[in-house]
Write a structure and sequence with these properties.
8% of the residues lie in helices and 62% in strands. The chain is built from one helix and eight strands. Strands 1, 2, 3, 4, 5 and 6 form a six-stranded antiparallel β-sheet that branches. A two-stranded antiparallel ribbon has the order 7-8. It starts with a strand and ends with a strand.
């Protein structure tokens, strides 16, 4: 099953995607496509190369063009990476709650049905590992 989501100006981006997935009772999915503009992007990024990562959280004001969204929803929890650009830079980061649609967001997700149980388990370094039962 494929779910196509349309979000409008002012909608929260990640929260809107999560709400539609929940409304359609989809627990596991993969991002297939995304076209969007954002006026706020909330994200985190890894800051070092230590065994236990340090993440810093940011929120920037746009406008931003979304050039890529990728990732999976596993057991109802999204792990999405986003690449955005403004007039002076392009960067890829881990998408967080609080990002907001500027003009439009169209996202297609494919449900991962008929697979063994999927979940993420946090390892000794605090990193969530995908587990297939």
């Amino acid at each position: 099953r494929i779910l196509v989501i349309h979000l409008k100006p002012g909608d929260l981006f990640l929260e809107g995607i999560e709400a539609e997935l929940a409304r359609h009772h989809i627990r596991n999915a993969v991002v297939l496509s995304c076209v969007a503009t954002l006026d706020v992007v909330s994200y985190h990024r890894v800051q070092d190369t230590q065994p236990i990562p340090t993440n810093l959280f940011y929120q920037d004001s746009g406008p931003f063009e979304v050039s890529a969204l990728q990732g999976m929803l596993i057991d109802g929890q999204p792990h999405f990476h986003i690449t955005v650009s403004d007039p002076s830079r392009t960067f890829g980061v881990h998408l967080e709650h609080g990002s907001r649609v500027l003009y439009v967001a169209e996202v297609a997700l494919g449900e991962l049905a008929g697979l063994p149980a999927l979940c993420r388990v946090v390892d000794e370094y605090g990193i969530p590992e995908l587990q297939i039962a």
